[in-house]
């Protein structure tokens, strides 16, 4: 990062709320409630998995990783939004903006890979039940849990380095509610061809490859489920995948809209709505999806709420 880029713009102004509402601070209670719901729901999932021995399995281990990731993703964005609401000054410094972009894209890139790992776990459990303990040993589970974090932050490192080389020529109004790669490209006055190319290529690698892997896994899973003769067993096998399918649909749908928007045709209002869903709504809904559709998780959460511990 050269000195010219650092002195051109010292801070950015978020236009996502100020251009839509005369008093954006009225949204503070809603965002605070949503963030507290994200923290509470996901921390309860993590606590339940840690304390209840019935949940000491690869599926719930990866679920607790997903909850941790959702907390990290929302925490990169929401606290800064809340502080800006209280100050009624919707700004962020240049260095903080780059840091927010780095961590946001890192956590966002981790999640598709983690969802693919969770799909593989369901494939191993349903399609290879006799080999499951070997395929999903403790060592393998740890390796599969670490890999998405490495995958995601390698991607964000590329984007952060490229973003640090952008020139803004005094333009500091970001048409967004937080710092991210695509919004920064919209206001840059230097050539953004390399950045846009990197964005599309890495989106294909970070998003499309895990998505195709998930589809392939569920093709094999569906084929195995259909071969089960017992209706009860078939329904039970499918129910273990249903929550994951819902979460995958929510995340990938929002991610595709957030990171692959056309250069024209999207309004600021649409951008703000999509970004809110991506960083707030999805992390808030994931614990509900897994707890409402999973009997074991519901029982474990009841024990957590009652202060019990099952060893």
Write up this protein.
This protein is 74% helix and 3% strand. With 311 residues, it is mostly helical. The protein contains 11 helices and 3 strands, in the order αβααβαααβααααα. Helix 3 (58-87) packs antiparallel against helix 4 (94-127), helix 4 runs antiparallel to helix 6 (138-164) and helix 6 packs antiparallel against helix 8. Strands 2-1-3 form a 3-stranded mixed sheet. The termini are far apart. It has one domain (3-305): Rhopdopsin 7-helix transmembrane proteins.
Secondary-structure map with pairings?
Elements (H helix, E strand, L loop, with lengths): L2 H6 L2 E4 L13 H24 L6 H30 L3 E3 H34 L4 H4 L2 H27 L8 E2 L6 H7 L5 H34 L4 H29 L8 H25 L2 H11 L6
Parallel strand pairs: 1-3
Antiparallel strand pairs: 1-2
Helix pairs in contact: 2-3, 2-10, 2-11, 3-4, 3-10, 4-6, 4-8, 4-9, 6-8, 8-9, 9-10
List keywords for this structure.
311 residues, mainly alpha, Rhopdopsin 7-helix transmembrane proteins, three-stranded mixed β-sheet, 3% strand, disordered N terminus
Distance between the amino and carboxyl termini? 52 Å
Shape: globular
Number of domains: 1
Low-pLDDT sequence parts? 1-7
Number of strands: 3
């Amino acid at each position: 990062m050269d000195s010219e880029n650092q002195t051109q713009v010292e801070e950015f102004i978020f236009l996502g709320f100020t251009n839509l509402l005369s008093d954006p601070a009225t949204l503070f209670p809603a965002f605070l409630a949503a963030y507290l719901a994200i923290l509470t729901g996901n921390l309860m999932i993590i606590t339940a998995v840690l304390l209840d021995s019935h949940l000491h399995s690869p599926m719930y281990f990866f679920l607790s990783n997903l909850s941790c990731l959702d907390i990290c993703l929302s925490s990169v964005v929401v606290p800064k939004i809340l502080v800006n609401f209280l100050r009624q000054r919707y700004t962020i410094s240049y260095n903080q903006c780059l840091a927010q972009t780095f961590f946001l894209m890192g956590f966002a890139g981790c999640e598709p890979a983690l969802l693919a790992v969770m799909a593989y776990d369901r494939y191993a459990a349903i399609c290879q039940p006799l080999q499951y303990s070997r395929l999903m040993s403790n060592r393998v589970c740890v390796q599969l849990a670490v890999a998405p974090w490495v995958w995601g932050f390698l991607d964000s490192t590329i984007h952060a380095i490229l973003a640090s080389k952008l020139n803004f020529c005094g333009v500091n109004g970001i048409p967004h509610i937080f710092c991210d790669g695509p919004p920064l490209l919209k206001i840059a006055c230097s050539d953004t061809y390399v950045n846009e190319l990197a964005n599309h290529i890495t989106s294909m690698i970070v998003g499309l490859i895990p998505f195709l892997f998930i589809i392939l896994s569920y093709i094999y899973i569906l084929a195995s489920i259909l071969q089960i003769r017992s209706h009860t067993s078939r329904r039970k096998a499918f129910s273990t995948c249903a929550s994951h399918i819902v979460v995958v649909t929510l995340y990938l749908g929002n991610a595709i809209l957030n990171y692959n928007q056309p250069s024209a045709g999207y309004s600021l209002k649409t951008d703000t709505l999509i970004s809110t869903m991506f960083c707030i709504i999805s992390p808030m809904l994931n614990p509900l999806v897994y707890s409402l559709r999973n009997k074991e998780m519901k029982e474990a959460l009841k024990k957590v709420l009652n202060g019990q511990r099952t060893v």
